[in-house]
Amino acid sequence: MPEGILVQPSGTYIPKLINMLKISGRRKKDLEHHAVLETYSSEFPEQDVLTGEEASLFRSALGLILYISHDRPDILFATKALATWMSYPCVKAKAALKHLALYLAGTVCWCIVEKV
C-alpha cells in the first residue's frame, strides 16, 4: 500500500473459528476478554474440566486463535491467559474462548499498517 505495509490475518480463520464453536448469529463483543479472565493455576479447586471431544474442540479453536494473534496485538493478553488452560480446559475457559471469538467476529476488518 502507498501508506505502508498492511498486516492482517487471512479472512478465512475467523469464520472458521465461529463455525467450529457454533456461535454464529450471537451478539458481537466490544472487549476481547472478561475482567475476571485469569491464568490457570494448579492451586485452583477442581472445576468442571472438559473431556474428550469438548477438550479437543477447545484446543483446536485456541490453536486458530494462537495463529491469528500474531497479526492482532489487541488479543495477546486474552490469548496468553487462555493458553494456560490448554492442559486442563474447563467450562469457564471455554466461555472465555467463545467471548474472544465473538470479539474477533466483530473486529474482523481490523489490521495493522506499518509505515515504511
Brief descriptors of the model:
116 residues, mainly alpha, 2 strands, 44% helix, elongated
Describe it.
The protein has 4 helices and 2 strands, in the order E-H-H-H-H-E. It has helices at 13-21, 52-69, 76-83, 91-106, and strands at residues 5-7, 112-114. Helix 1 packs antiparallel against helix 2 (52-69) and helix 1 packs antiparallel against helix 4. The protein has one domain (5-41, 56-107). It has a two-stranded antiparallel ribbon. The longest helix is centred in the middle third of the chain and has 18 residues, at 52-69. The chain has 116 residues and is mostly helical.
From the structure provided, what is the oligomeric state, counting identical versus distinct chains? single chain
Classify the helix fraction into a percent range: 40-55%
Amino- and carboxy-terminal Cα gap: 10 Å
Uncertain residue ranges: none
Query: Which percent band covers the strand fraction?
Result: 5-15%
The overall average pLDDT, rounded, is 86
Q: How many β strands by DSSP?
A: 2
Rg calc:
15 Å
Order of helices and strands: EHHHHE
Q: What is the makeup of the main sheet? A: 2 strands, antiparallel
